[in-house]
Protein backbone atom coordinates (compact mmCIF):
# COMPACT_ATOMS: atom_id res chain seq x y z
CA UNK A 1 0.00 0.00 0.00
CA UNK A 2 2.81 2.35 0.98
CA UNK A 3 4.56 1.41 -2.23
CA UNK A 4 1.42 2.09 -4.24
CA UNK A 5 0.98 5.46 -2.59
CA UNK A 6 4.61 6.43 -3.15
CA UNK A 7 4.39 5.34 -6.79
CA UNK A 8 1.37 7.60 -7.32
CA UNK A 9 3.07 10.41 -5.47
CA UNK A 10 6.29 10.15 -7.48
CA UNK A 11 4.43 10.02 -10.77
CA UNK A 12 2.17 12.94 -9.79
CA UNK A 13 5.29 14.86 -8.83
CA UNK A 14 6.78 14.31 -12.28
CA UNK A 15 3.43 15.05 -13.95
CA UNK A 16 3.15 18.41 -12.24
CA UNK A 17 6.68 19.39 -13.21
CA UNK A 18 5.85 18.26 -16.78
CA UNK A 19 2.84 20.58 -16.77
CA UNK A 20 4.95 23.48 -15.58
CA UNK A 21 7.42 22.79 -18.38
CA UNK A 22 4.73 23.40 -20.99
CA UNK A 23 3.15 26.29 -19.16
CA UNK A 24 2.13 28.28 -22.23
CA UNK A 25 0.12 25.45 -23.74
CA UNK A 26 -1.34 24.26 -20.47
CA UNK A 27 -2.24 27.70 -19.19
CA UNK A 28 -4.09 28.54 -22.40
CA UNK A 29 -5.93 25.24 -22.19
CA UNK A 30 -6.75 25.79 -18.52
CA UNK A 31 -8.14 29.27 -19.21
CA UNK A 32 -10.39 28.19 -22.06
CA UNK A 33 -11.49 25.11 -20.17
CA UNK A 34 -12.28 27.04 -16.99
CA UNK A 35 -14.18 29.66 -19.00
CA UNK A 36 -16.37 27.00 -20.55
CA UNK A 37 -17.10 25.33 -17.22
CA UNK A 38 -17.81 28.78 -15.81
CA UNK A 39 -20.39 29.53 -18.52
CA UNK A 40 -22.13 26.19 -18.29
CA UNK A 41 -22.12 26.16 -14.48
CA UNK A 42 -23.43 29.76 -14.40
CA UNK A 43 -26.43 28.85 -16.55
CA UNK A 44 -27.02 25.77 -14.44
CA UNK A 45 -26.76 27.44 -11.05
CA UNK A 46 -28.78 30.42 -12.14
CA UNK A 47 -31.65 28.50 -13.69
CA UNK A 48 -31.85 26.20 -10.73
CA UNK A 49 -31.76 28.99 -8.17
CA UNK A 50 -34.46 30.92 -10.06
CA UNK A 51 -36.65 27.87 -10.20
CA UNK A 52 -36.22 27.32 -6.48
CA UNK A 53 -36.95 30.97 -5.81
CA UNK A 54 -40.14 30.78 -7.86
CA UNK A 55 -41.31 27.66 -6.10
CA UNK A 56 -40.65 29.32 -2.71
CA UNK A 57 -42.76 32.28 -3.73
CA UNK A 58 -45.54 30.01 -4.98
CA UNK A 59 -45.59 27.99 -1.80
CA UNK A 60 -48.23 30.30 -0.33
CA UNK A 61 -50.25 30.40 -3.55
CA UNK A 62 -53.79 28.94 -3.62
CA UNK A 63 -54.24 25.33 -4.74
CA UNK A 64 -56.76 26.21 -7.47
CA UNK A 65 -57.42 29.38 -9.46
CA UNK A 66 -60.71 29.47 -11.37
CA UNK A 67 -60.90 31.72 -14.43
CA UNK A 68 -63.94 32.31 -16.56
CA UNK A 69 -63.46 31.80 -20.27
CA UNK A 70 -65.32 33.44 -23.10
CA UNK A 71 -64.50 32.70 -26.75
CA UNK A 72 -61.33 31.02 -25.58
CA UNK A 73 -60.17 34.10 -23.70
CA UNK A 74 -59.95 34.99 -20.04
CA UNK A 75 -63.10 36.85 -18.98
CA UNK A 76 -64.15 38.56 -15.74
CA UNK A 77 -65.92 36.19 -13.38
CA UNK A 78 -69.25 37.06 -11.66
CA UNK A 79 -69.38 37.12 -7.84
CA UNK A 80 -72.28 34.66 -7.80
CA UNK A 81 -69.89 31.93 -8.88
CA UNK A 82 -68.28 32.25 -5.43
CA UNK A 83 -71.35 30.84 -3.71
CA UNK A 84 -71.70 28.04 -6.24
CA UNK A 85 -68.07 26.94 -5.81
CA UNK A 86 -68.30 27.18 -2.03
CA UNK A 87 -71.02 24.54 -2.15
CA UNK A 88 -68.65 21.94 -3.63
CA UNK A 89 -67.68 19.34 -1.05
CA UNK A 90 -64.00 19.59 -0.05
CA UNK A 91 -63.62 23.33 -0.68
CA UNK A 92 -62.54 25.04 2.53
CA UNK A 93 -62.28 28.63 1.32
CA UNK A 94 -63.11 30.72 -1.72
CA UNK A 95 -62.23 34.29 -2.62
CA UNK A 96 -62.59 36.58 -5.59
CA UNK A 97 -59.35 38.23 -6.79
CA UNK A 98 -58.83 41.50 -8.55
CA UNK A 99 -55.74 42.03 -10.63
CA UNK A 100 -54.78 43.44 -14.00
CA UNK A 101 -52.03 44.94 -16.11
CA UNK A 102 -51.24 48.55 -16.77
CA UNK A 103 -48.86 49.77 -19.44
CA UNK A 104 -46.84 52.70 -18.22
CA UNK A 105 -45.69 54.78 -21.21
CA UNK A 106 -43.25 56.67 -18.94
CA UNK A 107 -41.07 53.63 -18.26
CA UNK A 108 -42.26 51.54 -21.22
CA UNK A 109 -43.09 48.69 -18.85
CA UNK A 110 -46.13 46.68 -17.87
CA UNK A 111 -47.14 46.85 -14.22
CA UNK A 112 -49.28 44.32 -12.40
CA UNK A 113 -52.01 45.86 -10.28
CA UNK A 114 -53.43 43.70 -7.54
CA UNK A 115 -55.89 43.95 -4.67
CA UNK A 116 -54.77 41.96 -1.63
CA UNK A 117 -57.05 40.00 0.71
CA UNK A 118 -56.59 42.64 3.37
CA UNK A 119 -55.16 46.02 2.41
CA UNK A 120 -53.59 47.77 5.39
CA UNK A 121 -53.76 51.26 3.89
CA UNK A 122 -56.59 53.45 2.74
CA UNK A 123 -58.02 54.63 -0.53
CA UNK A 124 -55.49 56.48 -2.72
CA UNK A 125 -52.56 54.55 -1.18
CA UNK A 126 -50.38 51.94 -2.89
CA UNK A 127 -47.60 49.50 -2.09
CA UNK A 128 -45.16 49.08 -4.97
CA UNK A 129 -42.46 46.62 -6.03
CA UNK A 130 -38.75 47.42 -6.13
CA UNK A 131 -38.67 47.61 -9.93
CA UNK A 132 -41.26 50.38 -10.06
CA UNK A 133 -39.56 52.25 -7.21
CA UNK A 134 -36.32 52.11 -9.18
CA UNK A 135 -37.66 53.17 -12.58
CA UNK A 136 -40.04 55.84 -11.31
CA UNK A 137 -37.55 57.02 -8.66
CA UNK A 138 -40.12 56.99 -5.89
CA UNK A 139 -40.22 55.85 -2.28
CA UNK A 140 -42.67 55.88 0.63
CA UNK A 141 -44.53 59.22 0.80
CA UNK A 142 -44.03 60.02 -2.89
CA UNK A 143 -46.85 60.31 -5.36
CA UNK A 144 -47.38 58.27 -8.52
CA UNK A 145 -49.66 59.42 -11.27
CA UNK A 146 -51.32 57.08 -13.76
CA UNK A 147 -54.14 57.31 -16.23
CA UNK A 148 -57.45 55.54 -15.58
CA UNK A 149 -59.39 53.59 -18.24
CA UNK A 150 -61.42 56.72 -19.04
CA UNK A 151 -58.40 59.03 -19.34
CA UNK A 152 -58.79 60.73 -15.98
CA UNK A 153 -55.64 60.91 -13.84
CA UNK A 154 -55.19 58.66 -10.85
CA UNK A 155 -52.95 60.12 -8.16
CA UNK A 156 -51.71 57.43 -5.77
CA UNK A 157 -49.46 57.82 -2.75
CA UNK A 158 -46.72 55.26 -2.19
CA UNK A 159 -46.94 53.93 1.36
CA UNK A 160 -44.54 51.00 1.19
CA UNK A 161 -42.01 49.41 -1.14
CA UNK A 162 -42.13 45.60 -1.14
CA UNK A 163 -39.05 43.81 0.25
CA UNK A 164 -36.49 42.69 -2.30
CA UNK A 165 -36.71 39.07 -1.14
CA UNK A 166 -39.83 38.56 -3.24
CA UNK A 167 -38.64 40.66 -6.14
CA UNK A 168 -38.61 37.84 -8.64
CA UNK A 169 -42.41 38.07 -8.87
CA UNK A 170 -43.13 41.42 -7.21
CA UNK A 171 -40.76 43.71 -9.07
CA UNK A 172 -43.54 45.19 -11.23
CA UNK A 173 -46.33 44.93 -8.65
CA UNK A 174 -48.68 47.68 -7.45
CA UNK A 175 -50.89 46.72 -4.52
CA UNK A 176 -53.95 48.93 -4.03
CA UNK A 177 -57.43 49.01 -2.48
CA UNK A 178 -60.45 47.36 -4.13
CA UNK A 179 -62.15 50.70 -4.57
CA UNK A 180 -59.17 52.26 -6.33
CA UNK A 181 -58.77 49.18 -8.50
CA UNK A 182 -62.40 49.18 -9.69
CA UNK A 183 -62.22 52.90 -10.42
CA UNK A 184 -58.91 52.46 -12.21
CA UNK A 185 -60.19 49.87 -14.67
CA UNK A 186 -63.88 50.76 -14.59
CA UNK A 187 -64.77 47.33 -13.27
CA UNK A 188 -68.32 46.99 -11.96
CA UNK A 189 -68.93 45.58 -8.46
CA UNK A 190 -69.91 41.91 -8.58
CA UNK A 191 -67.14 41.05 -11.01
CA UNK A 192 -63.72 39.61 -10.22
CA UNK A 193 -60.64 38.82 -12.31
CA UNK A 194 -60.61 35.25 -11.07
CA UNK A 195 -61.49 33.14 -8.07
CA UNK A 196 -59.07 31.29 -5.80
CA UNK A 197 -60.05 28.39 -3.64
CA UNK A 198 -58.41 26.32 -0.96
CA UNK A 199 -59.03 22.64 -0.63
CA UNK A 200 -59.09 20.82 2.72
CA UNK A 201 -57.38 17.67 1.51
CA UNK A 202 -54.43 18.12 -0.87
CA UNK A 203 -55.21 14.75 -2.48
CA UNK A 204 -58.62 16.01 -3.56
CA UNK A 205 -57.37 19.02 -5.53
CA UNK A 206 -57.78 17.35 -8.92
CA UNK A 207 -61.24 16.02 -7.99
CA UNK A 208 -62.39 19.46 -6.83
CA UNK A 209 -61.05 21.01 -10.04
CA UNK A 210 -63.08 18.47 -12.02
CA UNK A 211 -66.21 19.29 -10.06
CA UNK A 212 -65.73 23.03 -10.66
CA UNK A 213 -65.46 22.46 -14.36
CA UNK A 214 -68.56 20.28 -14.35
CA UNK A 215 -70.58 22.79 -12.34
CA UNK A 216 -69.35 25.82 -14.27
CA UNK A 217 -68.49 24.71 -17.81
CA UNK A 218 -67.42 28.24 -18.84
CA UNK A 219 -64.53 28.23 -16.34
CA UNK A 220 -60.98 26.94 -16.36
CA UNK A 221 -59.48 25.69 -13.07
CA UNK A 222 -55.69 26.10 -12.88
CA UNK A 223 -53.81 24.02 -10.31
CA UNK A 224 -50.79 25.24 -8.34
CA UNK A 225 -48.84 22.23 -9.56
CA UNK A 226 -49.56 23.33 -13.14
CA UNK A 227 -48.24 26.81 -12.44
CA UNK A 228 -45.10 25.34 -10.92
CA UNK A 229 -44.68 23.14 -13.96
CA UNK A 230 -45.07 26.16 -16.22
CA UNK A 231 -42.38 28.01 -14.27
CA UNK A 232 -40.09 25.01 -14.63
CA UNK A 233 -40.78 24.84 -18.36
CA UNK A 234 -40.09 28.54 -18.78
CA UNK A 235 -36.77 28.33 -16.97
CA UNK A 236 -35.85 25.15 -18.80
CA UNK A 237 -36.69 26.80 -22.08
CA UNK A 238 -34.69 29.90 -21.20
CA UNK A 239 -31.66 27.95 -20.06
CA UNK A 240 -32.05 25.84 -23.19
CA UNK A 241 -31.67 28.97 -25.30
CA UNK A 242 -28.45 29.85 -23.51
CA UNK A 243 -27.13 26.31 -23.85
CA UNK A 244 -27.88 26.39 -27.59
CA UNK A 245 -26.00 29.66 -27.88
CA UNK A 246 -23.17 28.18 -25.85
CA UNK A 247 -23.12 24.98 -27.87
CA UNK A 248 -20.92 26.58 -30.50
CA UNK A 249 -18.50 27.53 -27.72
CA UNK A 250 -18.65 23.97 -26.39
CA UNK A 251 -17.92 22.62 -29.85
CA UNK A 252 -15.00 25.01 -30.31
CA UNK A 253 -13.65 23.89 -26.95
CA UNK A 254 -13.98 20.21 -27.83
CA UNK A 255 -11.95 20.77 -30.99
CA UNK A 256 -9.39 22.84 -29.10
CA UNK A 257 -9.11 20.39 -26.22
CA UNK A 258 -8.97 17.38 -28.50
CA UNK A 259 -6.17 18.97 -30.47
CA UNK A 260 -4.23 19.98 -27.37
CA UNK A 261 -4.82 16.82 -25.41
CA UNK A 262 -4.59 14.26 -28.14
CA UNK A 263 -1.96 15.70 -30.44
CA UNK A 264 1.28 14.62 -28.88
CA UNK A 265 4.18 16.73 -30.07
CA UNK A 266 7.36 15.09 -31.36
CA UNK A 267 9.02 16.14 -28.11
CA UNK A 268 6.34 14.46 -26.01
CA UNK A 269 6.64 11.30 -28.07
CA UNK A 270 10.38 11.30 -27.61
CA UNK A 271 9.91 11.80 -23.90
CA UNK A 272 7.58 8.81 -23.68
CA UNK A 273 10.23 6.81 -25.56
CA UNK A 274 12.88 7.88 -23.03
CA UNK A 275 10.65 6.95 -20.10
CA UNK A 276 10.04 3.53 -21.57
CA UNK A 277 13.74 3.07 -22.31
CA UNK A 278 14.75 3.85 -18.72
CA UNK A 279 12.30 1.32 -17.33
CA UNK A 280 8.81 2.79 -17.28
CA UNK A 281 6.03 0.39 -18.16
CA UNK A 282 3.22 1.32 -20.55
CA UNK A 283 0.93 1.49 -17.51
CA UNK A 284 3.29 3.95 -15.78
CA UNK A 285 3.19 6.25 -18.80
CA UNK A 286 -0.60 6.00 -18.91
CA UNK A 287 -0.82 6.71 -15.20
CA UNK A 288 1.27 9.84 -15.75
CA UNK A 289 -0.96 10.95 -18.62
CA UNK A 290 -4.04 10.22 -16.54
CA UNK A 291 -2.79 12.47 -13.75
CA UNK A 292 -1.88 15.12 -16.31
CA UNK A 293 -5.42 15.14 -17.75
CA UNK A 294 -6.96 14.95 -14.31
CA UNK A 295 -4.85 17.84 -12.99
CA UNK A 296 -5.76 20.13 -15.90
CA UNK A 297 -9.44 19.24 -16.01
CA UNK A 298 -9.98 19.20 -12.24
CA UNK A 299 -8.30 22.57 -11.80
CA UNK A 300 -10.36 24.04 -14.64
CA UNK A 301 -13.53 22.43 -13.31
CA UNK A 302 -13.05 23.73 -9.77
CA UNK A 303 -12.03 27.19 -10.96
CA UNK A 304 -14.99 27.35 -13.38
CA UNK A 305 -17.54 26.16 -10.81
CA UNK A 306 -16.19 28.49 -8.13
CA UNK A 307 -16.26 31.49 -10.48
CA UNK A 308 -19.79 30.58 -11.58
CA UNK A 309 -20.89 30.33 -7.95
CA UNK A 310 -19.53 33.80 -7.22
CA UNK A 311 -20.96 35.12 -10.49
CA UNK A 312 -24.47 33.80 -9.82
CA UNK A 313 -24.85 34.33 -6.11
CA UNK A 314 -22.62 37.28 -5.28
CA UNK A 315 -22.63 39.48 -8.38
CA UNK A 316 -25.53 40.78 -10.51
CA UNK A 317 -25.15 37.87 -13.03
CA UNK A 318 -24.38 40.30 -15.80
CA UNK A 319 -24.03 37.68 -18.47
CA UNK A 320 -27.40 35.97 -18.40
CA UNK A 321 -29.74 38.22 -16.45
CA UNK A 322 -31.55 39.67 -19.46
CA UNK A 323 -32.36 36.23 -20.84
CA UNK A 324 -33.03 34.15 -17.79
CA UNK A 325 -34.82 36.57 -15.51
CA UNK A 326 -37.67 39.05 -15.59
CA UNK A 327 -41.11 39.06 -17.16
CA UNK A 328 -41.36 42.63 -18.43
CA UNK A 329 -38.80 45.33 -19.05
CA UNK A 330 -38.25 45.78 -15.31
CA UNK A 331 -35.51 43.37 -14.46
CA UNK A 332 -35.72 42.24 -10.89
CA UNK A 333 -32.46 42.78 -9.05
CA UNK A 334 -32.56 40.45 -6.10
CA UNK A 335 -30.04 38.22 -4.44
CA UNK A 336 -30.44 34.53 -5.03
CA UNK A 337 -30.01 32.18 -2.13
CA UNK A 338 -26.76 30.24 -2.70
CA UNK A 339 -27.66 26.65 -3.42
CA UNK A 340 -25.88 23.87 -5.29
CA UNK A 341 -27.53 20.74 -6.51
CA UNK A 342 -24.96 17.91 -6.23
CA UNK A 343 -26.62 16.02 -9.08
CA UNK A 344 -26.09 18.96 -11.45
CA UNK A 345 -22.47 19.39 -10.39
CA UNK A 346 -21.89 15.67 -10.92
CA UNK A 347 -23.42 15.91 -14.40
CA UNK A 348 -21.16 18.82 -15.28
CA UNK A 349 -18.19 16.90 -13.89
CA UNK A 350 -18.89 13.85 -16.02
CA UNK A 351 -19.45 15.98 -19.10
CA UNK A 352 -16.21 17.91 -18.77
CA UNK A 353 -13.55 16.19 -16.66
CA UNK A 354 -14.08 12.60 -17.79
CA UNK A 355 -14.01 13.16 -21.59
CA UNK A 356 -10.92 15.35 -21.33
CA UNK A 357 -9.03 12.85 -19.20
CA UNK A 358 -9.88 10.07 -21.64
CA UNK A 359 -8.83 12.28 -24.56
CA UNK A 360 -5.39 12.66 -22.96
CA UNK A 361 -4.89 8.98 -22.31
CA UNK A 362 -5.84 7.46 -25.68
CA UNK A 363 -3.07 8.99 -27.86
CA UNK A 364 -0.53 8.44 -25.10
CA UNK A 365 -1.50 4.81 -25.01
CA UNK A 366 -0.63 4.58 -28.69
CA UNK A 367 2.70 6.31 -28.09
CA UNK A 368 3.39 4.30 -24.94
CA UNK A 369 3.14 0.98 -26.70
CA UNK A 370 6.13 1.71 -28.94
CA UNK A 371 9.24 -0.36 -28.40
CA UNK A 372 11.64 1.32 -26.00
CA UNK A 373 14.56 0.65 -28.33
CA UNK A 374 13.20 3.30 -30.71
CA UNK A 375 15.04 5.79 -28.48
CA UNK A 376 18.33 4.03 -29.13
CA UNK A 377 17.72 3.93 -32.85
CA UNK A 378 16.57 7.58 -33.13
CA UNK B 1 26.54 -14.22 -17.50
CA UNK B 2 24.49 -13.37 -20.59
CA UNK B 3 24.10 -15.98 -23.29
CA UNK B 4 22.83 -15.27 -26.80
CA UNK B 5 21.81 -18.29 -28.86
CA UNK B 6 21.56 -17.86 -32.61
CA UNK B 7 20.03 -14.39 -32.39
CA UNK B 8 18.48 -12.84 -35.46
CA UNK B 9 16.73 -9.48 -35.61
CA UNK B 10 14.87 -8.37 -38.72
CA UNK B 11 13.16 -5.00 -38.94
CA UNK B 12 10.02 -4.71 -41.12
CA UNK B 13 9.99 -8.44 -41.61
CA UNK B 14 8.06 -9.63 -44.65
CA UNK B 15 8.04 -6.18 -46.22
CA UNK B 16 10.06 -5.12 -49.29
CA UNK B 17 12.27 -2.89 -47.12
CA UNK B 18 13.02 -5.61 -44.55
CA UNK B 19 16.42 -5.20 -42.88
CA UNK B 20 18.38 -7.88 -41.07
CA UNK B 21 20.27 -5.98 -38.37
CA UNK B 22 21.59 -8.98 -36.45
CA UNK B 23 22.11 -12.24 -38.25
CA UNK B 24 22.67 -15.47 -36.33
CA UNK B 25 24.73 -14.21 -33.39
CA UNK B 26 25.68 -16.67 -30.66
CA UNK B 27 27.71 -15.25 -27.81
CA UNK B 28 28.45 -15.57 -24.12
CA UNK B 29 29.14 -12.29 -22.27
CA UNK B 30 30.95 -12.63 -18.98
CA UNK B 31 29.61 -11.14 -15.80
CA UNK B 32 31.70 -8.49 -13.97
CA UNK B 33 33.69 -7.73 -17.13
CA UNK B 34 33.84 -4.84 -19.58
CA UNK B 35 32.88 -5.91 -23.10
CA UNK B 36 32.97 -3.61 -26.12
CA UNK B 37 30.99 -4.25 -29.31
CA UNK B 38 33.00 -2.62 -32.01
CA UNK B 39 32.29 -2.14 -35.69
CA UNK B 40 31.28 0.39 -38.34
CA UNK B 41 27.91 2.13 -38.46
CA UNK B 42 25.13 -0.27 -39.42
CA UNK B 43 27.06 -3.31 -38.24
CA UNK B 44 24.32 -4.19 -35.73
CA UNK B 45 26.04 -3.11 -32.47
CA UNK B 46 23.19 -0.95 -31.18
CA UNK B 47 20.55 -3.53 -32.13
CA UNK B 48 22.44 -6.27 -30.33
CA UNK B 49 22.80 -3.98 -27.31
CA UNK B 50 19.05 -3.28 -27.25
CA UNK B 51 18.31 -7.02 -27.48
CA UNK B 52 20.65 -7.79 -24.59
CA UNK B 53 19.09 -4.95 -22.57
CA UNK B 54 15.53 -6.31 -23.03
CA UNK B 55 14.51 -3.24 -25.03
CA UNK B 56 13.50 -5.29 -28.02
CA UNK B 57 12.83 -8.92 -28.77
CA UNK B 58 14.81 -10.95 -31.28
CA UNK B 59 13.02 -12.25 -34.36
CA UNK B 60 14.67 -15.61 -33.74
CA UNK B 61 16.90 -17.12 -31.09
CA UNK B 62 17.05 -17.01 -27.30
CA UNK B 63 18.70 -14.82 -24.70
CA UNK B 64 19.53 -16.13 -21.24
CA UNK B 65 20.22 -13.83 -18.32
CA UNK B 66 22.01 -16.13 -15.89
CA UNK B 67 19.76 -19.19 -15.93
CA UNK B 68 16.65 -17.27 -16.90
CA UNK B 69 15.37 -17.27 -20.44
CA UNK B 70 14.08 -13.74 -21.03
CA UNK B 71 13.03 -13.64 -24.69
CA UNK B 72 9.62 -15.20 -24.07
CA UNK B 73 8.70 -13.02 -21.06
CA UNK B 74 5.57 -10.85 -21.36
CA UNK B 75 6.18 -7.10 -21.67
CA UNK B 76 5.45 -6.36 -18.00
CA UNK B 77 8.00 -8.86 -16.73
CA UNK B 78 10.51 -7.85 -19.37
CA UNK B 79 10.21 -4.21 -18.24
CA UNK B 80 10.71 -5.30 -14.66
CA UNK B 81 13.85 -7.25 -15.59
CA UNK B 82 15.06 -4.27 -17.60
CA UNK B 83 14.67 -1.68 -14.87
CA UNK B 84 16.04 -3.82 -12.06
CA UNK B 85 18.95 -5.39 -13.95
CA UNK B 86 20.10 -2.86 -16.56
CA UNK B 87 21.24 0.73 -16.51
CA UNK B 88 21.34 2.49 -19.88
CA UNK B 89 23.60 5.27 -21.10
CA UNK B 90 22.47 6.50 -24.50
CA UNK B 91 24.43 8.11 -27.30
CA UNK B 92 22.38 11.33 -27.15
CA UNK B 93 22.18 11.04 -23.33
CA UNK B 94 18.38 11.35 -23.73
CA UNK B 95 17.84 13.50 -20.68
CA UNK B 96 14.32 14.87 -20.30
CA UNK B 97 14.42 18.58 -21.02
CA UNK B 98 12.79 21.13 -18.73
CA UNK B 99 13.38 19.23 -15.52
CA UNK B 100 16.42 19.39 -13.27
CA UNK B 101 19.43 17.09 -13.36
CA UNK B 102 18.30 15.68 -10.00
CA UNK B 103 14.82 14.84 -11.30
CA UNK B 104 16.33 13.22 -14.38
CA UNK B 105 18.39 10.96 -12.16
CA UNK B 106 15.35 10.02 -10.04
CA UNK B 107 13.12 9.33 -13.05
CA UNK B 108 13.78 5.56 -13.56
CA UNK B 109 12.94 4.86 -9.91
CA UNK B 110 9.59 6.70 -9.82
CA UNK B 111 7.40 3.73 -10.82
CA UNK B 112 9.07 1.50 -8.22
CA UNK B 113 7.34 3.38 -5.42
CA UNK B 114 10.38 4.20 -3.33
CA UNK B 115 9.88 6.84 -0.67
CA UNK B 116 10.45 10.22 -2.32
CA UNK B 117 12.85 11.54 0.33
CA UNK B 118 15.09 8.46 0.36
CA UNK B 119 15.10 8.37 -3.45
CA UNK B 120 16.14 12.00 -3.55
CA UNK B 121 18.89 11.31 -1.05
CA UNK B 122 20.26 8.45 -3.17
CA UNK B 123 20.08 10.56 -6.33
CA UNK B 124 21.98 13.41 -4.66
CA UNK B 125 24.60 10.97 -3.39
CA UNK B 126 25.15 9.74 -6.95
CA UNK B 127 25.41 13.29 -8.31
CA UNK B 128 27.91 14.00 -5.56
CA UNK B 129 29.89 10.88 -6.46
CA UNK B 130 30.24 12.14 -10.02
CA UNK B 131 31.02 15.71 -8.92
CA UNK B 132 27.94 17.40 -10.31
CA UNK B 133 25.94 17.96 -7.13
CA UNK B 134 26.30 21.76 -7.46
CA UNK B 135 24.37 21.45 -10.76
CA UNK B 136 21.54 19.33 -9.30
CA UNK B 137 18.86 21.96 -9.85
CA UNK B 138 20.05 22.97 -13.32
CA UNK B 139 17.71 22.04 -16.10
CA UNK B 140 18.93 19.28 -18.43
CA UNK B 141 19.32 21.63 -21.39
CA UNK B 142 21.61 23.94 -19.40
CA UNK B 143 24.16 21.22 -18.66
CA UNK B 144 27.44 21.01 -20.58
CA UNK B 145 28.20 17.85 -22.60
CA UNK B 146 30.26 16.33 -19.78
CA UNK B 147 27.70 17.25 -17.12
CA UNK B 148 24.87 15.86 -19.22
CA UNK B 149 26.72 12.61 -19.66
CA UNK B 150 27.50 12.26 -15.98
CA UNK B 151 23.85 12.98 -15.20
CA UNK B 152 22.91 10.23 -17.67
CA UNK B 153 25.37 7.89 -15.89
CA UNK B 154 23.82 8.73 -12.50
CA UNK B 155 20.40 8.01 -14.00
CA UNK B 156 21.63 4.65 -15.27
CA UNK B 157 22.85 3.81 -11.76
CA UNK B 158 19.85 4.93 -9.71
CA UNK B 159 18.24 1.48 -9.55
CA UNK B 160 21.63 -0.04 -8.72
CA UNK B 161 21.73 -2.27 -11.83
CA UNK B 162 24.06 -5.23 -12.16
CA UNK B 163 24.63 -4.61 -15.86
CA UNK B 164 25.40 -1.26 -17.48
CA UNK B 165 24.78 -0.81 -21.17
CA UNK B 166 26.24 2.17 -23.02
CA UNK B 167 25.60 2.99 -26.66
CA UNK B 168 28.35 5.09 -28.29
CA UNK B 169 28.90 6.91 -24.97
CA UNK B 170 31.80 9.02 -26.22
CA UNK B 171 30.29 10.04 -29.56
CA UNK B 172 29.58 13.58 -28.32
CA UNK B 173 32.55 13.98 -25.99
CA UNK B 174 36.01 15.40 -26.50
CA UNK B 175 39.14 13.35 -25.73
CA UNK B 176 39.43 14.50 -22.12
CA UNK B 177 35.79 13.72 -21.32
CA UNK B 178 36.04 10.40 -23.18
CA UNK B 179 38.99 9.39 -21.00
CA UNK B 180 37.07 10.47 -17.92
CA UNK B 181 34.20 8.27 -19.02
CA UNK B 182 36.50 5.25 -19.33
CA UNK B 183 37.80 5.98 -15.83
CA UNK B 184 34.21 5.79 -14.63
CA UNK B 185 33.83 2.47 -16.45
CA UNK B 186 36.90 1.31 -14.51
CA UNK B 187 35.07 2.22 -11.30
CA UNK B 188 32.06 0.16 -12.40
CA UNK B 189 34.34 -2.78 -13.01
CA UNK B 190 35.92 -2.37 -9.60
CA UNK B 191 32.39 -2.50 -8.14
CA UNK B 192 31.90 -5.89 -9.86
CA UNK B 193 29.40 -4.59 -12.38
CA UNK B 194 29.05 -5.97 -15.90
CA UNK B 195 29.55 -3.31 -18.58
CA UNK B 196 28.63 -3.72 -22.25
CA UNK B 197 29.51 -0.85 -24.59
CA UNK B 198 28.84 -0.37 -28.28
CA UNK B 199 31.45 1.96 -29.76
CA UNK B 200 33.72 2.51 -32.70
CA UNK B 201 35.87 4.97 -30.77
CA UNK B 202 39.47 3.68 -30.36
CA UNK B 203 39.64 5.51 -27.00
CA UNK B 204 36.96 3.10 -25.81
CA UNK B 205 37.90 -0.24 -27.28
CA UNK B 206 41.62 0.51 -26.79
CA UNK B 207 41.19 1.35 -23.11
CA UNK B 208 43.02 -0.87 -20.58
CA UNK B 209 39.83 -1.34 -18.55
CA UNK B 210 38.21 -3.25 -21.43
CA UNK B 211 38.33 -7.04 -21.02
CA UNK B 212 36.99 -8.07 -24.38
CA UNK B 213 36.36 -6.48 -27.78
CA UNK B 214 33.84 -8.11 -30.11
CA UNK B 215 33.97 -6.91 -33.70
CA UNK B 216 30.77 -6.86 -35.72
CA UNK B 217 30.06 -6.34 -39.40
CA UNK B 218 26.84 -6.71 -41.36
CA UNK B 219 24.98 -8.04 -38.33
CA UNK B 220 27.46 -10.84 -37.73
CA UNK B 221 30.33 -11.38 -35.34
CA UNK B 222 33.58 -10.89 -37.19
CA UNK B 223 35.88 -11.45 -34.24
CA UNK B 224 34.73 -12.60 -30.80
CA UNK B 225 37.88 -11.28 -29.15
CA UNK B 226 38.89 -14.22 -27.04
Care to describe what's here?
The complex is a heterodimer of chains A (378) and B (226). With 378 residues, chain A is of the alpha+beta class. Chain A folds into 2 domains: 2-57 and 230-377, no CATH class; 77-192, Barwin-like endoglucanases, CATH 2.40.40. In chain A, 56% of the residues lie in helices and 18% in strands. In chain A, the strands form 2 sheets. In chain A, strands 1, 2, 4, 5, 6, 7, 8, 9, 11 and 12 form a 10-stranded mixed beta sheet that branches. Chain A is elongated. Residues 327-333 of chain A have low confidence and may be disordered. Chain B is an alpha/beta fold and 226 residues long. Chain B has one domain (2-223): 3-Layer(aba) Sandwich (Rossmann fold), CATH 3.40.50.300. Chain B is built from 7 helices and 10 strands. Classes of the chains: A alpha+beta (378), B alpha/beta (226). At the A-B interface, helix 1, helix 9, helix 10 and helix 13 of A face helix 1 and helix 2 of B.
Question: Keywords, please?
Answer:
heterodimer; A: alpha+beta; 2 domains; ten-stranded mixed sheet; 13 helices; B: 226 residues; alpha/beta; six-stranded mixed sheet; 7 helices
Short description:
The complex is a heterodimer of chains A (378) and B (226). Chain A has 378 residues and is of the alpha+beta class.
